[in-house]
Amino acid sequence: MNFDTSGYTWAHEHLHIDLSGFKNNLDCRLDQYDLICQEMKDLRALGVRNIIEMTNRYMGRNPQFMLDLMRDSGINVVACTGYYQDAFFPEHVATRSVEQLAQEMIDEIVIGIDNTTLKAGIIAEIGSSEGVITPLEEKVFIAAARAHNETGRPISTHTSFSTMGAGATGLVAGAGRRSLPRGDWSLRSER
């Protein structure tokens, strides 16, 4: 499915997420298909054509849920790949190399996510902790930059309480970030 430039794009949404193992808030778990699908149909009627979905690996991302929403609502969903913040990292982030983490992201962009046809169109939501970028977060930022260099997909970051933005930018730039030509948003989420 192509990125549709004829309407609005919502740039940071969570359609399916489960952070209930980390937080005790009512909004930490979104998984009500019928409700979300109806909201997306309402958005489509208002001109929304794309949603950039920022739920990445190990945050309760559900690629089949997203594929079904695209089919039933008519809105393109641009899925992401990456890892959020240190507190949310699975154990293997500590044991895998930067190259291995980058390859995981590249595979989700090129091959697909979790054995589905949904391919990531953005590297996100790459996060830093409040007031610090931990060594593991630094590793993920560098892996994200390498995945960007390989695929050309944009990177979106997350700062906690507006801290560490300059540090995150420096890490990505230091890892050889390249600029994309204007209009290079050939995002595809194929079914």
From TrEMBL:
One Pfam family from the record: PTE
Top-rank lineage group of the source organism: Bacteria
MF GO annotations: hydrolase activity; zinc ion binding
InterPro entries: Metal_Hydrolase (IPR032466), Phosphotriesterase (IPR001559)
Keywords, in A-Z order: Hydrolase, Metal-binding
Hydrolase as UniProt keyword: yes
UniProt entry tagged with the keyword Metal-binding: yes
Family to which this protein belongs: Belongs to the metallo-dependent hydrolases superfamily. Phosphotriesterase family.
Protein name in UniProt: Putative hydrolase
Native species: Citrobacter koseri (Citrobacter diversus)
